């Protein structure tokens, strides 16, 4: 395939004749802030009680594996449900999916805060909670793709990803609410927070699906305050009709190698980090005698690392893209974003393996924090490029592509959190976490494959 043919792909063209989106910069910033806030709900729900898993184990009178299972079921549902939400968001609109899904989330948290103590009820309501919170990450990425042009998208994605990334930071800190044994308050807090986000979305978040509203010119000159509206009719022409959700369509996207390999790469990395995250609280309490509150505060360390990795990775990704386009405009391809990933994967691997052996050898806790920081930094450095690429590698279904990436990540996290305790018992802490860290070598292999064959696969997909 000649270079000239490569240059005509929709994902590589810079449209300069008209703005990509008619919204003002301030309105775009507001939308990014809203979807970032909404994207915080699911991860904070998944992480808010990880530091108090030892406490919940005693409250519910179950084993460590059983209470860790409540993390696993949350992650499994958080993996599958976005496939449903995102496909309909790409077809029928973004806003309606936010509003419907968050009703389930709010209801689940109200019940978790009030029903009698029973492990079966905890499992069922965690499933409902995950189902309700699961839409916002993939649908939020679709919203970003609607309003932010590719040249600035990685930066926007990096800020949007702060919502999911702050979950592992603020979730454990917010678990201080349960520091004196009042664990139900964490779900009461989530119910109130979810309701506040629901109101913000109703009154401030416009519909952005380009098939329905185009470049959002319909909002120019209007107030940021919106009348509550569940459905948005199509008011523009000229945009391709989205593919109606179906199993056939899912299968077609799953067979699309760039999406599949990019998603598996993220899944392996997430499995590694979740193995670290789930063990972190137990290590601090059992090995370093941290209290519940000290353990919760300790999650600030990987959290700050994730924020720094996300913002710096997004900024450099867009900077690299602009430089490449300036040097050779006709030859730029979205796969070039992967060139920075090897750096992030190596840092993450070093952090996890270092964490494994500092804990195994009972090294001072400060060294444990250093390696935990490196693991979190490398994780988000990679995720920003992954998520941005998933919105660019095909133009029609960005939310669905991101949902598949989310699916792979959370399935991997669910498996990791479910088996990590048994693996550590059989293999030892050092060798078990080292094995997880070495999974990043597979991710480096995927990066090389996508850089070499991704453009060819993408051309074939666009042609079909």
Automatic annotation (TrEMBL):
One of its GO terms (cellular component) is membrane raft. Its main location: membrane. It comes from the Eukaryota. It holds the Pfam family MFS_1. The chain crosses the membrane at residues 29-50, 70-89, 96-117, 123-145, 157-179, 185-205, 258-276, 296-317, 338-357, 363-384, 429-451. It is found in: Membrane. GO terms for molecular function: amine transmembrane transporter activity. GO terms for biological process: ascospore wall assembly; lipid homeostasis; membrane raft assembly. It is a multi-pass membrane protein. InterPro entries: MFS, MFS_dom, MFS_trans_sf. Residues 31-455 form the Major facilitator superfamily (MFS) profile domain. Belongs to the major facilitator superfamily. CAR1 family. This is Major facilitator superfamily (MFS) profile domain-containing protein. It comes from Spathaspora passalidarum (strain NRRL Y-27907 / 11-Y1). The lineage of its organism: Eukaryota, Fungi, Dikarya, Ascomycota, Saccharomycotina.
């Amino acid at each position: 395939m000649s270079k000239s043919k490569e240059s005509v792909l929709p994902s590589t063209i810079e449209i300069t004749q008209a703005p990509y989106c008619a919204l003002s910069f301030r309105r775009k910033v507001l939308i990014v802030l809203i979807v970032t806030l909404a994207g915080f709900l699911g991860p904070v729900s998944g992480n808010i009680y990880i530091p108090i898993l030892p406490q919940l184990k005693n409250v519910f009178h179950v084993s460590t594996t059983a209470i860790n299972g409540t993390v696993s079921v949350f992650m499994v549902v958080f993996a599958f449900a976005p496939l449903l939400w995102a496909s309909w968001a790409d077809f029928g609109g973004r806003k309606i999916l936010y509003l419907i899904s968050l009703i389930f989330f709010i209801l689940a948290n109200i019940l978790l805060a009030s029903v009698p103590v029973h492990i079966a009820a905890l499992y069922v309501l965690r499933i409902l909670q995950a189902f309700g919170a699961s839409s916002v990450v993939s649908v939020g990425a679709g919203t970003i793709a609607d309003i932010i042009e590719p040249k600035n998208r990685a930066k926007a994605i990096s800020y949007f990803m702060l919502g999911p990334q702050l979950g592992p930071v603020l979730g454990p800190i917010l678990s201080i609410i349960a520091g004196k044994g009042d664990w139900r308050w964490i779900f009461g807090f989530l119910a109130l927070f979810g309701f506040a986000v629901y109101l913000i979305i109703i009154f401030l978040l416009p519909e952005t699906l380009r098939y329905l509203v185009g470049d959002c010119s319909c909002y120019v000159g209007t107030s940021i305050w919106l009348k509550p509206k569940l459905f948005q009719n199509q008011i523009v022409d000229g945009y391709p009709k989205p593919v109606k959700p179906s199993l056939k369509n899912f299968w077609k996207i799953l067979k699309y190698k760039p999406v599949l390999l990019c998603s598996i790469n993220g899944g392996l990395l997430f499995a590694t980090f979740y193995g670290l995250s789930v063990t972190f609280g137990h290590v601090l309490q059992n090995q370093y005698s941290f209290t519940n509150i000290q353990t919760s505060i300790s999650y600030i360390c990987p959290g700050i690392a994730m924020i720094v990795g996300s913002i710096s990775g997004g900024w450099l990704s867009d900077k690299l893209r602009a430089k490449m386009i300036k040097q050779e405009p006709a030859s730029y391809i979205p796969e070039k974003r992967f060139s920075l990933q090897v750096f992030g994967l190596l840092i993450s691997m070093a952090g996890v393996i270092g964490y494994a052996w500092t804990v195994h050898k009972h090294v001072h806790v400060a060294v444990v924090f250093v390696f935990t920081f490196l693991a979190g930094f490398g994780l988000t450095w990679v995720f920003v490029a992954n998520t941005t690429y998933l919105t660019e590698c095909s133009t029609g279904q960005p939310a669905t592509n991101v949902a598949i990436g989310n699916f792979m990540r959370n399935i991997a996290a669910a498996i990791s959190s479910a088996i990590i305790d048994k693996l550590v018992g059989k293999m030892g802490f050092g060798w078990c976490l080292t094995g997880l860290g070495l999974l990043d070598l597979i991710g480096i292999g995927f990066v090389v494959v996508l850089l070499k064959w991704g453009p060819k696969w993408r051309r074939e997909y666009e042609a079909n």
